[in-house]
Amino acid sequence: MTLNVADVSRYQAGISFYKVKAAGCQAVIVGATYGTAGINPAAFAQLDGVRAAGMLRGVYHIRARQNTTAVEEANYFLNHVRGYLDGSTLPVLDWEECDTSDEAWALAWLNEVHRQTGIRPWFYVNLSDLLTYKYPRIAAAGYAIWLAYYPYATVDGFQGVGWTPQTIPAGHTLAAWQYVGTGGSLAGIQGLDLSVAYTDAKGWNAYARPQLTTDASNVTPIKGPLMALSDAQQTQLFNNINLLVARTNPIHRGDIDIAMTQEIADGKTVAINNNTAIKNLAAAVAALAAAPNAAVTLTDAQVQEIIAAVPPAVLATFRAQWNK
């Protein structure tokens, strides 16, 4: 259960992803941003090209050698690629062109991206730094490792799936191993980094999908219109509502007159304008409650706030849109 992965940057502008796929590639991770002052000018075309060729995709940010905070760089990254984080595109922090001992900065970036998107990024790091600094707080927070370690200088085609990477510090999850850097080639395309991901397409999408959790101690059973939901459904529903709230960047209670686009879990979008944010949340509640394996844990107050804010006709409209 592995995937062949290539990663590309501005140096591969114009690459044919159909050729890459024909050579056995199953996923491509695109370099997008660098610090707060640089973006790969080919990034959007590359991300679109990966999708058009029918491959899984990811997108990465490199921490730059500059005096910027983790939140500033996370925002810079998200401001450029947020529209691509659609539940099947995996974000990554590239941790190499910086002070690699600064675990607090890396964790802050990972946490900020997770806070805003609900997605847990991968942490790309070389073996030497991982063994030296161990990054225990990143391990404890559950961010998976994409390991860079190169047994060979050049590799033609994907050959890494049978290789066993070095043992990594306890507590970390090894999601992928980049076994050749810039010395890889596919179908005559030179200068590629090649990796193996220890998962399948379903697992890749699980990494890329927003997943928020909540402290069960803060939740009371749902009463009223949603009381028929099971405990599992309540928990799942609460996670989805938290996701919708987080991805509005942000919605503040009592201050909902925000003009923006709300990405809903199925990829559709709904405009949030002039106090419609709560209506969108309520629509999601209604739709999820009616769907198989629906989810959410709402407090009584949250249920009442959402349901009271939305007329039945509005709920019906949004339910119909959700189920298209």
Describe this structure in words.
By secondary structure, this protein is of the alpha/beta class. The chain folds into two domains: 3-208, Glycosidases (TIM Barrel, Alpha-Beta Barrel), CATH 3.20.20.80; 216-322, no CATH class. 35% of the residues lie in helices and 22% in strands. The chain has helices at 17-22, 43-52, 70-81, 103-117, 127-133, 136-141, 201-208, 231-246, 277-290, 300-309, 312-322; strands at residues 3-8, 27-34, 38-39, 56-62, 89-94, 122-126, 145-148, 155-156, 174-186, 189-197, 260-263, 269-272. An eight-stranded mixed beta barrel has the order 1-2-4-5-6-7-9-10, surrounded by five helices. It has a two-stranded antiparallel sheet with strand order 11-12. α1 links the parallel β1 (3-8) and β2. α3 (70-81) runs parallel beside α4 (103-117), α8 runs antiparallel to α9 and α9 packs across α11. The radius of gyration is 21 Å and the shape is globular. Mean pLDDT is 75; it is low at 212-230, 242-279, 291-300, 307-311 and 313-324.
Short description:
With 324 residues, this protein is of the alpha/beta class. The chain is built from eleven helices and twelve strands.
